[in-house]
Design goal:
1 helix; single chain; six-stranded antiparallel sheet; elongated
């Protein structure tokens, strides 16, 4: 979505694939739109009112009368690239390195070349980040429960969705600060 005029229209950027072939959309077509706002999955039905090609392909659709939403996450999640040390799960007493690909105050997505643990396993995570503008270094150690394991992805990495256990209020505030910092750096960093 590029923008909207409340009660009138939504402006949506179009992919080239939506403009060619047998599935091409046209003015007057009914669309079922699905999206994700970072916390809520939503869907609505609308009609294409106008298609424009300059400065890029976009369309105006009728402002929806009804939008269905379902809360998927309880906290905003942002993309990061933080090294993390992982213990527990499949590591059998050894610590392995992984990457935190995205994070919220409630959990994270870890990527690694091998399975870190099964759904329900508790992992011990150790990672660090800096709080600006004072460059205060935060060394965080938190237990996390594996919620999902998917992959391997095309890059060969497996993705592990984890939920943090018993995050103290000061840690939660520091994580929230990290999330706000990341959104200031890149407003499109939400997942």
């Amino acid at each position: 979505m590029i923008g909207y005029l409340r009660g009138e229209t939504l402006i949506i950027k179009l992919a080239t694939a939506q403009l060619t072939g047998t599935d091409a959309i046209g003015e007057g077509d009914k669309l079922e739109v699905r999206g994700f706002s970072g916390q809520v999955a939503f869907t609505f039905v609308t009609t294409v009112e106008q298609i424009r090609f300059s400065p890029y392909a976009y369309c105006h659709v009728r402002y929806p009368e009804l939008v269905h939403g379902l809360r998927i996450r309880h906290a905003e999640r942002v993309m990061v690239n933080l090294p993390v040390r992982v213990e527990g799960g499949h590591m059998e007493g050894e610590a392995v390195s992984a990457t935190i690909a995205n994070i919220s105050i409630n959990g994270a997505m870890l990527t690694a070349p091998a399975v870190l643990g099964d759904v329900g396993d508790v992992l011990k995570l150790t990672f660090r980040f800096w709080v600006l503008p004072s460059e205060y270094e935060v060394n965080m150690r938190v237990d996390a429960v594996v919620q999902t394991v998917t992959g391997p992805e095309p890059d060969g990495e497996l993705r592990h969705g984890v939920r943090f256990k018993s995050v103290r209020s000061t840690e939660s505030i520091l994580l929230q600060n990290l999330i706000y910092q990341r959104l200031q750096e890149d407003p499109e960093a939400t997942v």
